[in-house]
């Protein structure tokens, strides 16, 4: 264990105390314990259970104490600390057991209820017992890898892709990403994921049928990092794309696109990126729209070419991909790389830190929530191994392997799943480029064979850097390549090597542990591991047998593998858990047998390659025996080498990308619905769809909104299966009508009746009016009706001049229904034309104001409904919610009063509303969110109206997403928008503050329910809100209109 190399000397010190511990003068603690053995207790409770490096400092003080009595006291205190650690560990283990038992019970209950709702008998396919046994085509995939293994098959597949011109977006936010000379191992954020995403983008860009690949990451202009990370765009040069060069176009290929977000001059760790995710999303949205339009001009016949998929890598990028997927209505893919729940469980098991401490350090709860959102939104979740599915993803509320299998079987049989959805788990191991790799021949006793055409090249410089450490550099090299992180388990490897004399006599050990200049400048964790390694080398006197060079370049890594292969060495990965193990594949490509951990991806890799041995990473004797076996048995070594070289093609990038693209092709195509194949697309920015207000008024009576009911047609809860045909028919007619309007069928201009002087001067009413505004002010204050009205008047008064001129438009963003909005407008003496748009029902409905009294005050945007209806559970969801509301009761109350009741009059097709009778009881929203995820019902649960209402809306709908829709649909620049919010708000409050738009926080507004609403969040608001952003300002308490105008002046929007 890292940092515990002092154990032997500590045990000797305890033994030196000798009988004194048992005599009558010993402490009360030791007398009460009778035959207490601190040595045995220390070994049993610490050595076998902890990695507690902090005890080392206590031991140093004890060892330096000359007085036997004081020394004994210090050792006794250490025993007390050890006992306390053991108690904490047992407490954490008990809590973990209880937590897992509760999770199992909830999942089984949810599965039973889901199965009961899906009333048909289970089919044979639903009774399977293995995760992901059935492929998309119905055949079994058990025990084999879905890979191409024939050049002919690849050529056939490639010929089928010709003619396709796909646009794919990949996202990886943290770390330092560039195409060449990657600084892998520089820090914990720049590791294997960075290399994987760059090579994936490069490989996809060279595939037939793929026109462009964008890898979106963070732009970093910091003096702490190289200038190349501040370049906006970097083209990834294809490795081997001669066969597809004829398909290259003006903007084709693979690119790294760096989006500026977060602190402009700082390189920050991934844990600090969470508050800045909305800013990235807005910037990425801008890039994707621009690129889609450019590609449309080049290859789309003038129509935008939207991404066929957006693929997020790791939780932060997955959260971003989900928001972008919702804003653009395109499919999403997700790869976790490592998962938060698994990391949380591992840290808690160590017994060293509490859950709160873990969350403070790693922002783990925000990460877990992002991963749950990815399960809600992703079409496909790509994993490297089955172990990741069976042991890690099943820890999440949103994924149940058994229920996933049942849903998949029902979909295959075209049977309704009653609104339930589960992402498809696809095992696609990472790929590699092998065309440039030549396995090392020859050995250290003779030079590598050369010829006249290919003469032997001189030894690479990195060989000298390594071999200078060795007394006998001709011995086989045991190679480990990992950063000095405790989970990589390097110290156990050094112990295994140091304590096995036969292994030391036969081989050398090479440790490539990233790059370093000064150990004192490294992070505390990395420096601790490295110091432990150095102490172990000294302890076992391994000088001349272990190499640990300070520096290496990424381009040196192939030469390092070649050196190990040339010496007939072995590659080892002793990590406690390895999600996949890309280095194992790289080593096999260079002809190196492997010894690897039995936990995680190496199991699947060894099953395919059959080129090495698996070990228990906690057992140093197992590690030493496996290494010794491969180094000593030359026939076994040669057989493992040959197997690896023979099977390595199964992990090539072309085959990885073929499987990847096949998965994308299986996703249902989605894109912004107003972009139709029959849409003329002839409108310019100056004469865009709907430029005339009359266009939308002349569609049909079906489009009119009546305040007699929440919408035209059936009531909000009339979602029965019998009416599905009528609903579809009505929607089809409405979409055709809106399509005709969007194409500008009736361009009738009329005089505007509003006070907008611009309209009066031009005599032409453009629709929607917000397109012509210089700025858009979004009033998103989650207050009472009286408070909202007072705030609205103050804002209007603050910008009265600009409002009259028409340079500022207003949007009301609220959890209220459109009927409640109408009542609010009438009661406040306002006009619907004071606002350009209304985001209602927490973002599930979007309306525009109209100027024709005959058509009513509002017009609904039906395209917005089609935009957000992804995975909307409709009737199946409603039934579950009604059942949940009926079962909710205050257990502490004497009469068991129902906490939540159905609010039929407030519900619509895309918003199911509930009234909270007692807002102060329990974390209702958090519990409901878990319940729905466990039952595979994907939606967005929002606590609103000062905690008195719950709105359940589509999973990718929200008030902040509605603003992004307005940008995508109408080109409303987000950077020109200002959001007014209170000091607190609904549970979607955090989404309103981040992003490219400006935010004004009105101090003292909505502050009374801060603790109540934020209790439904599993992480503090400060973890996700950039309060230090220059785009956010706060007004004084009980602000006036003048205070609001001063705040706008600070944002650089108005002159006071």
From TrEMBL:
Superkingdom classification of source: Eukaryota
Domain Sucrose phosphatase-like intervals: 775-1002
GO molecular function list: sucrose-phosphate synthase activity
Pathway membership, UniProt: Glycan biosynthesis; sucrose biosynthesis; sucrose from D-fructose 6-phosphate and UDP-alpha-D-glucose: step 1/2
Residues annotated as domain Sucrose synthase first GT-B: 167-433
Any Gene Ontology biological process: sucrose biosynthetic process
Keywords: Glycosyltransferase, Transferase
Basic and acidic residues composition bias: residue spans: 103-115
The keyword Transferase is annotated on this UniProt entry: yes
InterPro entries referenced in this protein's UniProt entry, alphabetically: Glyco_trans_1, HAD_sf, SPP-like_dom, SPS, SPS_C, SPS_pln, Sucrose_synth_GT-B1
Gene3D superfamilies hit by this protein: 3.90.1070.10, Glycogen Phosphorylase B (3.40.50.2000), HAD superfamily/HAD-like (3.40.50.1000)
Quaternary structure, from the entry: Homodimer or homotetramer.
NCBIfam families: sucrsPsyn_pln
Protein name as it appears in the record: Sucrose-phosphate synthase
Organism: Cephalotus follicularis (Albany pitcher plant)
Phylogenetic classification of the source organism: Eukaryota, Viridiplantae, Streptophyta, Embryophyta, Tracheophyta
